[in-house]
Amino acid sequence: MTSSKSHVPQDAEDQSLFTAFTTYMGFIVLFFFGHLRDTFGKLTGRSRFRDELLVKHVDEAPLLDPQGGAFYVRRLKHRMQDCFFRPISSRPGAWIDVMEQRVDDNGVRMETTGETKRCLNLGSYNYLGFADDWDSTCGEQVHAALKIYGPASCSAQGDAGAMSVHRELEEVVANFVGKPAAVVFNMGYNTNQLTLPAIAQAGSLLISDKLNHTSIVNGCRASGAKVMAFKHNMADDLERVVRKAIIEGRGKPGEVYRPWTKIIVVVEGIYSMEGEVCDLRAIVDVAKKYKCYTYVDEAHSIGALGKTGRGICEHAGVHPDEIDILMGTFTKSFGGMGGYIAGSQELIDYLRGASAGLLYSASLSPVVAEQVLRAFQIIQGEDGTTVGRDRLRAIKDNANYFRTKLKQMGCSVLGDDDSPIVPMMLFHSTKIAAFSREALDRDLAVVVVGAPAVPIYGGRVRFCISAAHTKEDLRMALKKISEITKVLNLRYTRSIFG
Amino acid sequence: MFKNMAWSQPPNEDDHYINKNVNWVGKRFYVFYVFVIFVGAYLANVVLGTTVLNSFQVWTLVHVIHGIINFTVMHYVTGVPADLDNDEFHELSWWEQLDDGVAWTPMKRNLMIIPVVLFLVVAYFTEYDPMYLALNLCVLALVLLPKMPQFYRVRLNSSASFDEDDPTHPHSS
Fold it and tell me: Quick one: signal sequence residues (chain A) (predicted)?
């Protein structure tokens, strides 16, 4: 419990006792009233969740898992349903049209009214601003590609869907990240989900950061390999886990010692819920010391970190040769869709025949591939303009400016400098809903995050800064956020009461 | 009898999939727990102690209410409130979900100590009057026995569950 200016509450371990107490009280009240209403509903049958609460005798097993029947969804999530799933009706540029919704029946039903609201977009991953002026930067090439290739590839890469534009894109990606070869997938999530099972099997060990993305977690699970986690971003804990794994081997204590067939360490470049940059140098040193392979997911860092946008390797000063598998997505900085894996030529050749994403899933749409290609050209300055360089500088400046000003306000801001993701801690689950609604009232479109994506005491709002935001936009946003923090008591570094 | 005992190797901290229903308990929670008990006792004393009940009864009332809430929240209700990873916790009470069912972990020991200390405090303030002592001892037994590892997965006739009316889940018998 502290009120000194230098101490920034980062997560549950750092929040003041007052905040912890009020968070627990908030949950107790919510749970108590939720149970009260459930019990009332069960006893009297008068509840809008009548179908889920009353016991039914059914003749056949139900098809759908009752997601909506979970207590959490019924009594907690529905209360703030209007803060999620907000439809938009424009490009996700620096400004965005949010469709207004009317909430019926206390959150159970939501209907769009048909009106839209022009808001400042602080939620989209539009890091380099390609969504805003797409027509002038990429439009021409993409329209030309649409005429040549059509909108779809109609086949998997392994069958008849490997197009010349894919090959071009793969070469460009490989050159950009500094690896001999690369391969392109049609969906960023699937890149992780379908590559990890190809490179790790039963008998291997995958050591992934505790806060890795769901796609990595699911890919690890699907692979059949043993999965262990190390404390977020701590190279010492990684060393402890690696040593323990190598010493104990695959079997249980008492059995014959069986070594792991391989050990792969999986980390991310920027962690999207914390805005933190990976401690890549230390982690790679540990991995090399024990001869483990490294897999870095650069979904948020490629195109956003580093002087020329080459991602975490450039930012951390690690040579790409030291990392075995580099993965990234085109969704964030390149204004497209899809993902890539970059590595040695033999790895890529192997993946082409082993990864389900390349054999059974349709390949990336050629139109999107052309868009990404064009984005790479702009970033590298090959289109003859300085647009790429300006944007790379703008995103860093904007992110640092925004972050510094928020910290000066006294808010509890996570993440490292230069990272375009700026999460601000709210802690209470009730403040999550309040912040989202207050922001929308003031024409700010923000993304708030609550359990289960983050711990239950770690509610936060996650700002995504873009190169397309002007200083004026950010200044205006900061003024409005300042008002909101006064209303909601969010200045945790200034006072223990927020 | 030994089949149900859950003292196997310590919970694997490296395991990636942690039950979010229970992994938030920490030092702050214990402080909060004790704080709430104190506040409750003070309020009960102010509101009821000076008007309706005498001092012994107020303390016993606090102890009994604490016991009821403790038992209901930690041992009666089963399952997890949200549709998390899988259904493996559907039949387990909150206490049984702690630390993957391993007994005598620090967290569990702390949560056992608090009711015992509360009992001792209440016994002291009721001046060991036999009637109140007997009642409080029963409540202590109600709170402490389900926390013993021998009572892992032992059930009364019925138990509530967060998702008990879900037709896909068989009711526990």
Answer: none
